[in-house]
Predict the 3D structure of the following.
Amino acid sequence: MVRWSPLAVVIGLLAAVGLYGSTAAVAAAPLTVAQAISQQNGSSATVRGYVVGQPTATTTVVRSNYPNDYALALADSASQTGTSSMVYVQIPSAFRTAWGLKSNPSLLGKQIDVTGTLSAYFSHAGLTSSTAFAFAGTTPPTTTTTTTTTTTPPPSSCESYYTAACGKSGAALKTALNSIIRNQTKLSYDQVWDALKVTDQDPANANNVILLYSGRSQAKSTNGGGGDDWNREHVWAKSHGDFGTATGPGTDIHHLRPEDVSVNATRGNLDFDNGGSAVPEASGSRYDGDSFEPRDAVKGDVARMLFYMAVRYEGTDSYVNLELNNSVSNGSAPYMGKLSVLKQWSQQDPPDAFEKRRNQVIFDSFQHNRNPFIDHPEWVASIWP
């Protein structure tokens, strides 16, 4: 039996990490992907893994036809296909050209080291606010050395996208969120057709979309103006502020949804409240002379879309200032109600998988901004107590 002295063990360990050259004595060994998944605690770390694709949703990673350069997935095996064994890596803008899969599809299968914050991304074990990328075996990111532990990362509940809003409440929170989400790519009204076919795709049938108020799964190809076609519903009625379909609030897909043409007409420009008569072709939805009530499964969705619009459009960037109030008689004023009911609906129907996926797809593939009230429903009560 070979007996190792303590000194020999130390020398052997230093040799093992010697692939990093002269920095080995002070560099922390990279975490495996499995370790990164188990340590989602907001700390900073370097993770080593094989590039296995691009995450596009919580449980979806694509290995070809990459939509953009914003994210990649790492695993401990290049052949891994189970998303539960992957860590999702956020790629900041400074690194997208060199490390995004759309620009660099040959990265698939390569082993790399990424330094960032161990916190959720796509509501999945993640590595966010990444600060360095390198191929495994090359000079490591300097942030892995023991001299870079003085900065305390933000709490995991306030991920990097919302850093400017951390710790704020009330009007200050609303202002901070506006400054974040107004940074978006704007679509034309024609582009909205194609976007909705992606954002509202039926999880059980890729050829269909789910209609908002009726809940019906309908072929994507049946968009149009016929009675049984689907069209583009403005959840914040475009007449409430008279913004029409011009680029801006009129084309913001955070509040545009597919809906049956006749159901859309029934809703018209009504405010939202409880009660009324049943809506034909939209089981569970109701309406009367001054308000519309959507089915229970999307009450929170509707509320959070309106909360988004009231924060995104503050009249500071040439668009109308949209606000919520407690009225159901807002007419053409830039207001929507009924705020007290919308707050109840948001609590009654919290964000589900469909809504979270939709928010992520809009961020990744279309507008590149988020609905903060899907990510942080608790901010509703802070802004509208």
Remarks:
- The longest helix spans residues 299-312.
- The mean pLDDT is 88.
- The CA atoms of residues 53 and 107 lie 9 Å apart.
- The chain has eleven helices and 17 strands.
